[in-house]
Input
Amino acid sequence: MRRFADRHVGAVGLGCTGMSRAYAESEPNDRRSVALIREAVDLGVTFLDTGDVYGAGHNETLVGRAVRGIRDLVVVGTRVGLVADPETGRIRCDGTPAYVRGAVEASLRRLETETVDLYYLHRVDPEVPLAETWGAMAELVAEGKVRHLGLSQVTVAQAEEAHRIHPVAAIRSELSLWIRDPLGTDARRGCAGGHRSADGQENGDGRGNVVGWCAAKGAAFVSYAPLGRGNLRVADVVRKVAERHAVTPAQVAIAWTLAQGGHVIPVPGTTRQSHLYENTRAAGVDLSEDDLAELDAAPGCVTGP
Ligand SMILES: NC(=O)c1ccc[n+]([C@@H]2O[C@H](COP(=O)([O-])OP(=O)(O)OC[C@H]3O[C@@H](n4cnc5c(N)ncnc54)[C@H](OP(=O)(O)O)[C@@H]3O)[C@@H](O)[C@H]2O)c1
Output
């Protein structure tokens, strides 16, 4: 289990957005997707990740249908701040308070709920001061439309700025064996093993040690794309660790993400029952310090993405 705010959630969450075609009209198998989400909840996967931009709201509608009758069992996280042009599909930011206020009403309707558990700002709008957008989101908490606020792909400095206005309950960024930027400079330098430092300093890709910042502030770090977006080209060391534990490389990848801190919640995406089972069971893979050191230190321990 992991903690999110005042809730306990399954250690491995579920990224639902792949069930709608990202950023575009989708041709999904909705019935199968709804069944998969419900099966996930049966397996103890209670941290669901969606967003209003995926399939132009379709993904939230799916999640809303899936959690009918079991809404209290799950934490639903969704996002605001990206808008897809209906004709071109082109994505732009909109962090204006007026947009945020309208968007949350639409998300609540689609999610068939009165309150969103975790409402993320999907991207900081370069045209709108973060304080304005975040202030508008904080009003939604005061109005009871949203329980907690989160940020996505921000710098430590942006997280600090937002946190001074209203607590940041979670930050979601890409973190995996393949992409280690949120851990800071040392970790980015090809598996150099610096990722367990928690100083939250501004370094690395300029975003800083966001994982460490979250730990220090009691926020969750939600790692999206923990499977490298499905690119599981892995080097021998990953296979060796997987063989040692009699698990799959995907499970090692998720277990590695979980090992980055007790506040880290990976949200692997899947549309398949077999992968759902596999990913959920990764929470039981107990990587040793030696395993982690090997994964961290081996040059080229991963290839790609
Ligand atoms: N904030 C952002 O800007 C942003 C950007 C990208 C993604 N995301 C979020 O992050 C979530 C996860 O990202 P993601 O889905 O792109 O990447 P991911 O979780 O790293 O990878 C998902 C891909 O891996 C495959 N997969 C899942 N389990 C597997 C397993 N056990 N073995 C082999 N392949 C497996 C899936 O295919 P199958 O369907 O066949 O299982 C899918 O193609 C998304 O749902 C989305 O919410 C956010």
Q: What stands out?
A: The first strand starts at residue 2 and ends at 4. Residues 2-232+261-285 form a domain with the TIM Barrel fold (CATH 3.20.20.100).
